[in-house]
Amino acid sequence: MTRGWSLRRWYLVVVGVMVAAVLGAVVVGALALNRLGEARALVVDQLDPASRQALVLSNALVNEETGIRGYVLARDQDFLQPYLDGKRQEAAAADSLRTLFVGELAGSATGLAEIEDSAQAWRSQYAQPVVEGTGSGAPELGKALFDQVRAKLAMQEADLAGARTSARAELATAGDQIVTVGLVLAGVLIALVVLLAVLSHLGVIRPVSRLVTEVRQVADGRFKHQVLGSGPREIVRLASDVDAMRLRILDELDAYQQLHQELTRSNSELEQFAYVASHDLQEPLRKVASFCQLLERRYKGQLDERADQYIGFAVDGAKRMQGLINDLLAFSRVGRVTREQVVIEAEAVLAAAKANLETAIEESGAEITAGPLPRVRGEVSLLTAVFQNLIGNAIKFRGQDPPRVSLTAERTGEFWTFTCADSGMGIEAEYAERIFVIFQRLHPKDAYPGTGIGLAMCRKIVEYHGGRIWLDATEGPGSTFRFTLPAIEENSEPEA
């Protein structure tokens, strides 16, 4: 019945049930408290005061009868004082009882009237004539008349006692009812809370948990797992939206996989073409360069000046082309011709790079300093090429003063960040990406030697090792290059 309910409907139902339960509890409790209050008011405010006043009335009449009896025996006016006091007390008690005999005690007013009538008959027929001296004062007559008063008083006392017993029983019943109602309401509320908890679990919590489980499976990479929703309408719609998103991801993933395969194939073909082209061009280019050099040595000075110049241009072009082809061949081999990566000391790699640049370092008077460098995993020849290119660029693009190069390393999370800072002419921030593109140069070819492939080679080598390299244009003067390499365990020993 609740299948397909919306969360709003669930909320309204839960709130409605709770409000109905609270209202029911308030109504039942109010009725029970009202009954208890009425029973208490009857006992405390009417019956107990009526009983006390009835006792006062009875005592007052007995005092009247005692005073008349004493007067009859002694004929002394002092003995009439109890009679006179009793009359005043009787009148006051009767007035109080009349004010109390209302509501449920209204029937007792008749008994009070009968008592007053009997007492009045006793006074008019016996007591008053005795006081006035007109009566005989026969005890038998007085006793007979006052026995009627006693009988009425006894009836009144019995009625009040019965009413008091009944009222106290009603008071006890009302109290027990309050306790019973409280216990029942507590049980109903507990049962309602349990029922609401069960319904919430079945209608909301369980569908949400099931949806979370299915969505987590998709998030873990199982994109072919269909996401189905159940329970409230919002959860079903959310599951439908997640499943639609899953289908879109599948479509885009298929497209990306096809694109990735195409790019992989294209890159492989390009690398193969670069390798084959550069390798196959080596021999004819070597012949051109060799014969141009032979022509230059043999016929130098025998031809005119312009011919010597042309031959020089041909030799220079052949050498430059040979350098480009060699660099292109080396670039294409990165990541294609691989060797086993081993744990190596970065300081040893730096030493190898400095040894390869020994001549340039001595000629330029370069000062190369390095802080403690860590152990890393990689190919020695490739990482040597990275250090060699960065230091070589610092020496090549130097200013008027001898170049100074500083190399440091710092642990940042799971990577080591290497920094190579120099005191050269520096690079503008707008060229921070262009300098890593193959064959891109910021200066004319005749100004500085090289093919413009060094930094592109560095990027390819660093990315092949799982890191990245960039120009930090915020540091200066000079150029500051940073590159990262994955960190290894501290206790890893370098391999030969």
From TrEMBL:
The chain crosses the membrane at residues 12-33, 178-199. GO terms for molecular function: kinase activity. Its EC number is 2.7.13.3. It catalyses: ATP + protein L-histidine = ADP + protein N-phospho-L-histidine. Residues 276-489 form the Histidine kinase domain. Keywords: Kinase, Membrane, Phosphoprotein, Transferase, Transmembrane, Transmembrane helix, Two-component regulatory system. It is found in: Cell membrane. The keyword ATP-binding does not apply. It is an enzyme of class 2 (transferase). InterPro entries: CHASE3, HAMP_dom, HATPase_C_sf, HATPase_dom, His_kinase_dom, HisK_dim/P_dom, HisK_dim/P_sf, Sensor_kinase/Photoreceptor. Residues 202-254 form the HAMP domain. The keyword Hydrolase does not apply. Pfam families: CHASE3, HAMP, HATPase_c, HisKA. This is histidine kinase. It comes from Kutzneria viridogrisea.
